[in-house]
Design brief:
The structure is a homodimer.
Chain A (H helix, E strand, L loop, with lengths): L1 E2 L6 E4 L2 H13 L4 E6 L5 H13 L2 E6 L19 H10 L4 E4 L3 H4 L13 E7 L6 H4 L3 H16 L3 E5 L3 H14 L4 E5 L20 H6 L2 H14 L5 H14 L3 E8 L15 E9 L2 E9 L4
Parallel strand pairs in A: 2-5, 3-4, 3-7, 4-5, 7-8
Antiparallel strand pairs in A: 1-2, 9-10, 10-11
Helix pairs in contact in A: 6-7, 9-10
EC number (chains A, B): 6.3.2.1
Enzyme class (chains A, B): ligase
Keywords (chains A, B): Ligase
Chain lengths: ~300, ~300
């Protein structure tokens, strides 16, 4: 499959062997490779990552793979949007030469993969400590699945630089730690969260699940984050005051908050105030059966 | 530190940055790299791995690192032999140009490392299934520590081929699975076990712990393995008969057997007979506070 709408040539590779041959070709031409791992259902946030990769590296590889290992049996693996043809068209429309790696599950997990952790066999990567708070609280399997598939993809892509969105801030911290701890020979860049220009709602592939009514209420969480950011700018560092601002906005929109936390960027442990190294203010909320997350960084950058 | 006894030039590197610079130099000259990870206390078995690496690749890197993560708190981390100067002399005496990577623990584990698994923080690699039987039975922490440090070393070395000894047969299986599952871009070679030419005792850095009396009894295990191999050559495939041969020889030498198993090469599960794909006959025994292992392959090669 390939597409050239809008002038960008998009080649779609499906096997590890094809990607390795492509990577070898780039290497032989002295071209650096930027890598953007995604689960598809591409939106402007993903395209921003592709743009950042295109700015920094010579050749851009985008993986599109809905990774079973990061879903729990009760989560939305089956209904997660899979829109490869649309995704390829969106990438082509950027006008950039991009290569897509869209493997089958059997290509990434030749021995098969269960979403039940106890039934899993084979190699898994876990980042102890950083994986446990925040998202790890309700999704204990999640970062193990993410770290494992990203380790696989890093080895397949052989990239020089990999690009991730700040929206998944804990994922960024976990993967940075994985790269540092295991000495992966690549750099990670974190790109600021892309937002709906009108409401500020963080772009997410899961936003398509929202009803119009939910979509109208969802931006309240980010309004709360912005109020907290304003408080911090005015000198407030206390956790309780910052969280209250978020919770107040969320309550006005009747958001079903799962958690709001102020966390240390070092170990993601809860902190009582924003310290000299800054802090992450993040949270998750539910709208019907959909679960959304968002965050801001206070006093530091990733 | 460097040594040139016997004509082989041995450069000793201590930091990840030094190895990366060395690797880049090899790459720029189009040289392939062979990698031999060791815990030092080098014997003829290790030198055989270095020779195999020298035959197959252009430049050989030997790591010497006693990895705390693969020891349990009650094991012999503290008394494990550390003989870097001797090791470098032995490598120099081979006459081969070899580069040694001898990092400090703080270089490999900048956040520190506890031998207590529950206290560990950071990134770990586990190979579920293959890590659990055999050695994993008495050393549940072991292959997690091995897989983790080898993943680090593979990323640091950037090697094309890595060489391991068959004596640690389960380690070979676990690391092959890790390389396959995570798509590490390198090949693994398994080199036959080096043995004392007179007694057949498998060479091991832990043999130095043995008293003269223990050293005299230790070869009985391999004699048992050889009896089992002869039985297999004569058509015997039944587990019970093969194990009885090993246990009989071991009993005659009053070896304190921990286990003897006939295992499938696919998943290391116990099998009742040697199947069409062959089987591994392996075991562990204790002599005082020293624990030794050995194995043979029946009907297949690694």
């Amino acid at each position: 499959m390939s597409a050239t709408d809008g002038g960008g040539a998009v080649a779609v590779l499906h096997t590890v062997a094809e990607v390795r041959a492509w990577r070898e070709e780039q290497r032989s031409q002295g071209r650096t490779v930027g890598f953007v791992p995604t689960m598809g259902a591409l939106h402007a946030g993903h395209l921003g990552l592709v743009a950042a990769a295109g700015e920094e590296t010579d050749a851009v590889l985008v993986s599109i793979f809905v990774n079973p290992a990061q879903f729990a049996p009760h989560e939305d693996l089956d209904r997660y949007p899979r829109t490869l043809a649309d995704d390829v068209r969106k990438l082509a429309a950027t006008g950039r030469a991009v290569t897509v790696f869209a493997p089958a599950v059997s290509e990434m997990y030749p021995r098969g993969i269960s979403t039940t952790v106890a039934a899993q066999r084979g190699t898994f990567v876990e980042v102890r400590g950083l994986s446990e708070p925040l998202e790890g609280g309700t999704r204990p399997h999640f970062f193990r699945g993410v770290a494992t598939v990203v380790a696989k993809l890093f080895h397949i892509a052989g990239a020089d630089v990999a690009f991730f969105g700040q929206k998944d801030v804990q994922q960024c911290c976990v993967l940075r730690a994985m790269v540092d701890d295991l000495f992966f020979p690549l750099a990670i860049r974190v790109v600021p969260t892309a937002r709906d220009p009108d409401s500020g709602l963080a772009l997410s592939s899961r936003n398509v699940y929202l009803t119009a009514e939910q979509r109208a209420r969802a931006p309240a969480f980010y309004r709360g984050l912005c109020r907290a950011r304003d408080l911090f700018a005015s000198g407030v560092v206390a956790r309780d005051e910052l969280l209250a601002a978020v919770r107040d906005e969320a309550a006005q929109a009747q958001l079903d908050i799962e958690y709001v936390c102020l966390s240390s960027p070092d170990d993601l442990a809860e902190v009582q105030e924003v310290g000299p190294g800054g802090a992450i203010l993040s949270g998750a909320w539910r709208m019907g059966s959909t679960r959304l997350i968002d965050n801001i960084l206070l006093g530091f950058e990733l």
